[in-house]
Structure formats: structure tokens, C-alpha cells
Design a protein that fits this description.
Layout lengths: L1 E2 L5 E2 L5 H4 L3 E4 L5 E4 L6 H13 L4 E4 L10 H11 L2 E2 L3 H7 L7 H15 L4 H12 L4 E5 L7 E4 L16 H4 L1 H8 L5 E4 L6 E4 L3 E4 H4 L2 E3 L6 E4 L13 E6 L3 E7 L3 H9 L6 H9 L2
Parallel strand pairs: 3-7, 4-5, 5-6, 8-9, 9-13
Antiparallel strand pairs: 1-2, 4-14, 7-8, 10-11, 10-13, 12-15, 14-15
């Protein structure tokens, strides 16, 4: 453990998992909206929350990375605090609260700017509420369902093995099938993840189906396990710049895309010197 510039005790990168061995368990009514990787993109978050409200969905689980990259971290934190039943810790939330681990220079710079922005809040109550919220984030949430095709549903940011920062890429199906087999041993029926910003469904065969192949819907099954990536609200990377999230009910998981004013967000980001322009321009192409 070491102390960062804010006086917070920081686990070494190699020991994150020992320090953050915390889980939440809960009972939720269906349907549930599952969102992830907001990355301080307020315009995208507001558009998604409006879409969720229009669909009459009351329960929202956020898989983390509320902050990082984007221009409006405080407002995004405030909305998540107000609207989400559960919010888990992502690697960018961890980085802002403690220290970035293995970040590229652009991501690291945005992380330090985000921290400075949150610390600059003059309202002490608001400032402390945001930091307390970040510090209280669990790394895993579990819902036990009596419905066979749901069973145990696990929610994490990265993977069921390393919840904060392990990536599960579509290419792992071919390049690292053993990794996928090990991940599938760590949950019951369903596992929801984010982190890669690429939505789709993994199976333990192993296989991966993108949202176009699924026609944006995965029917839940009591015969198969599935690891479902819900995509990203604030920085999609599947060549579709619309915000991505999932609604899960007793029968299926539905992938939903929501348009928002991408150019407005790019303009906000380009006005901030500490945020790399590449982080802004990639939003236009969804990459």
C-alpha cells in the first residue's frame, strides 16, 4: 500500500484484487437496465437515461467507469448516484480515486484532469459525496434468481476473474480459448461485463456473437451460460457511435443503441487542454 496525492491509501497494481474483494448481493425486479463505461460523457448518459425512462425500466445497474476520458465527470457521478441502484468500480474509477495502472498517456492525463476537476468543487457536501461514492463502489454484484434461465447473475466491470481490469475480447475465442473456459467456471448462468466497449455475447464453446448477428437480442436459456458485454455509453468501440446498453428481463437480453449529439461532446473535450484530441475524435467513428 502507498499513499497517493489525495492522502488515500493505494493498493499496488499487483494486489488490487486482494484489497478489493468486496461483493454486493441483491434481489431485483425485472426488467433491469445494465449500463457501463459512461466515461464522463454527460450527453450520452442523459440520452440513455431518457430512453430507459421511456421504456418504463426502474432498476439500473452500472458496471463502472463512470469517469475518465470525457469532459463532465461531476455531473455524470451525480446522475449515477441519483439514478442507479448499484454502481460497480471500473478501472478508470479506481484510477481517479487512487492511481492509474498501465494506462496510456492520454488516458492517464484525462484521469489526472478528472481528479483535479472533482477536487475543485467548491461545495464541500457535493465534493465529499462524489468521493465517498467512488470509494464505496463494490467490484461485483450478484443476483440470485428462481428463474432457471437466469439463475445466478453476476455483474462486474472487467471479468468474473478480475473484476476491475481484465479484458474479455472477441478475439479471445480464437487466441485464448482456455481463458474463456476459466472465466465461465466463475459464474452460474449469466455474467454481465463492460470494459472493452464492444457489445455482444460470449459462450463457453467458446464463441462470440456481435449484436448484428444476434439482431440485438439474446433469448435467455436454461441450457447455456452466457457472458454478455453491454457495450459503452460514453465511448463505443464497435464502429457505431451511438450509446450502447442492455435491458434484461425474464426472457431475454436486449441490446439498445441511443443516438446523442456526438459533435457537442467533441467540442467540449477539445476545449480542455489536458484531454487528448484523439479521445474526442474517436467518438465520431465509434472506435
Amino acid at each position: 500500500m502507498k499513499q497517493n496525492l489525495l492522502g488515500r491509501m493505494t493498493p499496488d497494481c499487483g494486489s488490487i484484487w486482494a484489497e478489493f474483494d468486496c461483493e454486493n448481493f441483491g434481489i431485483f425486479s425485472m426488467p433491469i437496465a445494465v449500463i457501463s463505461d459512461i466515461h464522463s460523457n454527460l450527453d450520452a448518459l442523459q440520452a440513455v437515461l431518457a430512453d430507459i425512462d421511456q421504456r418504463g425500466v426502474d432498476q439500473i445497474i452500472c458496471l463502472g467507469d463512470v469517469v475518465g476520458y470525457g469532459p463532465e465527470p461531476a455531473a455524470c457521478l451525480d446522475l449515477v448516484i441519483e439514478q442507479c441502484s448499484v454502481c460497480l468500480m471500473g478501472n478508470h474509477d479506481y484510477a481517479v480515486l487512487y492511481e492509474p495502472c498501465n494506462f496510456n498517456i492520454g488516458a492517464e492525463s484525462a484521469c489526472y484532469w478528472t481528479r483535479k476537476k472533482l477536487e475543485a468543487e467548491k461545495d464541500a457536501v457535493l465534493r465529499d459525496r462524489r468521493w465517498d461514492f467512488l470509494g464505496a463502489m463494490a467490484t461485483k454484484h450478484v443476483i440470485q434468481s428462481d428463474i432457471a434461465r437466469q439463475g445466478e447473475m453476476v455483474f462486474v466491470h472487467g471479468s468474473p476473474r478480475r473484476p476491475i481490469n481484465e479484458y474479455v475480447f472477441p478475439d479471445d475465442v480464437c487466441s485464448n480459448p482456455g481463458k474463456l473456459h476459466l472465466l465461465f467456471e466463475r459464474f452460474g448462468r449469466l455474467c454481465f461485463v463492460g470494459h472493452t466497449h464492444v457489445p455482444g455475447v460470449f459462450f463457453d464453446t467458446p464463441d462470440f456473437y456481435g449484436t448484428e448477428e444476434l439482431e440485438n437480442e439474446y433469448p435467455l436459456s436454461d441450457s447455456y451460460k452466457a457472458l454478455i458485454n453491454v457495450g459503452s455509453i460514453g465511448q463505443p468501440r464497435d464502429r457505431d457511435n451511438r450509446a450502447s446498453y442492455v435491458v434484461v428481463d425474464e426472457e431475454k437480453a436486449t441490446f439498445i443503441r441511443v443516438p446523442y449529439d456526438v459533435d457537442a461532446v467533441i467540442k467540449k473535450m477539445c476545449a480542455i487542454g489536458e484531454i487528448d484530441e484523439y479521445l474526442a475524435s474517436r467518438l465520431r467513428d465509434g472506435r
